[in-house]
Amino acid sequence: MSILVIDVGTSGVRSGIVRSDTSIDSVHHVPVLPDTPFPGLVEFDGRTMADAVLEVAGQALAEGGPVRGVGIANQRASTLVWERSTGSPVAPGIGWQDLRTVGTCLELQAQGLRLAPNASATKLSAILDAVDPDRRRAQAGELCFGTIDTWVTWVLTGGNVHVTDASNAGVTGLLSGDGAGWSATALAALSIPEVMMPAIVDSVGEVGTAIALEESPLITGIVGDQQASLLGQGCTRPGLAKATFGTGGMLDQCVGPVRPPHAVRGPGGTIPIVAWRQDGHLTWGVEAIMLSAGTCVEWLRDDLGLIDSAEASATVASGCDDTGDVWFVPALLGLGSPVWDFGARGTILGLTRGSGRAEVVRAVLEGVAHRGADLVEAAELDSGLDIGALRVDGGMSANGVFIQALADATGRRVEVSPVLEATTLGAGLLAGLALGTWADTEDIAATWNPKEVVDPAISEAVRSDRRARWLEARSRAEATLPELSGIEF
Fold it and tell me: Residue 289 and residue 268: Cα distance in Å, rounded?
């Protein structure tokens, strides 16, 4: 049984066909880059995105169809508003990275409402303030709000279905604490009429018919990108965790049916997430966040000129056995979990006359690995569940030096995903679950077959010493810009 997956990322739209043996073929991709009209602003064109979705889906079906179902994976929290009658966006969409609502978030904190600027809530309010300031059209039901999964579903069903799944609803900032529906308190604080909100549906199950596609397959799975990666790496049992190392880094751990106790952020700096919903039952998780991962390798290549390509970082770093006591803290955009310090800045310590190109490149890879260890420790603290082995995907998972450094920094076995980006596979598994290709989430767990397994190569004593040295470097990177370090979301 074959599943078409549409995977909408931050920089493009990908499609592929997931087969019942978990192989993926007929992959097509169209770049859809966001616009940055001013620093801190990130926008996208909803119509361009819709056209790209239909283009790559059509190409995949022509090459690898027919399919029984459609799965959707998507960048989370990006926000769009469109007319219900025409399906036309009323303004540019606002991307998840957009920071225009920082001031609004700080004002809401004073009212006792904690919202982050990367969530959808204040983005939606900003769009309404621009196009419907008195909320007349929204209140009359003329306008629809959606995250990217909502928009893609609307496009595929010809405007017949207005929904979001629970995993995407959970990162809007507008979901009620128990995950059962929309928060009346948050909607009222931002003057958002509930009539414009999508219905919250299961991540697994029939949602609607994709009449915009050849043979009109059923949409049977919807899930946010990080949750899709969690599923794609078989992490369906409590305690299992994956980390995706791309431009930034996200570690997600499956917790189970009970919501983590922290409302917004736990003591370890993780965020509670809805991993997926099936038959009305929620599976929860925690998410730890690294703001700079692959960005640091790009910095070595594009700004310092120390490497010719991202792939060359492994070769250059292999030119030395260790960093020569050089320590790098990847805080180019501040620090996420566990300390959440937006005023922290990237730091290199321990340079000597003997420090060369290889030592600096290795220090960068090891610094990202230590941030990975931060995420593991943060998730374990907030979930109360041990991470025995860490599963990884993303662009940096192809870097052998980094993977070994990650195993050494965490003191854990690292299992590398057989596919570089596990989001497509995860969305396919979820959609196939609804169609009976996989019987249950235990079946999904059993699909995990890592490409490579890497164990720590150093003793625990050496690891502890290196970890302490790096944590000292991290403490010196914190509060570089005190005025930003004082901001909390």
Answer: 11
- Residue 453 falls inside a structural domain: no
CB 169 within 8 A of CB 146: no
CATH (domain of 206): 3.30.420.40
Residue 423 lies in a domain: no
Are residues 193 and 266 located together in one domain of the fold? no
**CA distances to 164, 395, 396, 397 from 392, in Å:** 27, 10, 9, 6
- pLDDT tops 90 at residue 488: no
* CA distances in angstroms from 219 to 66, 150, 222, listed in the order given: 14, 12, 8
Report residue 177's pLDDT band, with 50, 70 and 90 as the boundaries. Answer: confident
CA distance 131 to 5: 33
Q: Which domain holds residue 205?
A: 3-225
Whether the predicted pLDDT of 262 surpasses 90: no
**Total count of domains within the chain:** 2
Contacts of 303 (CB under 8 A, 6+ apart): none
pLDDT tens-place string over residues 337-384:
999 999 999 999 999 999 999 999 999 999 999 999 999 999 999 999
Asked whether residue 394 is domain-assigned, the answer is yes
Nearest to 246 by CA among 289, 295, 288, 302: 295
Give Cβ neighbours of residue 315 (< 8 Å, ≥ 6 apart). none
Report how far residue 5's alpha carbon sits from residue 202's, in angstroms, rounded to the nearest whole number.
Answer: 17
Instruction: Say if residue 327's pLDDT is above 90.
Output: yes
pLDDT of amino acid 179: 87
Tell me, yes or no, if the pTM score tops 0.70. Answer: yes
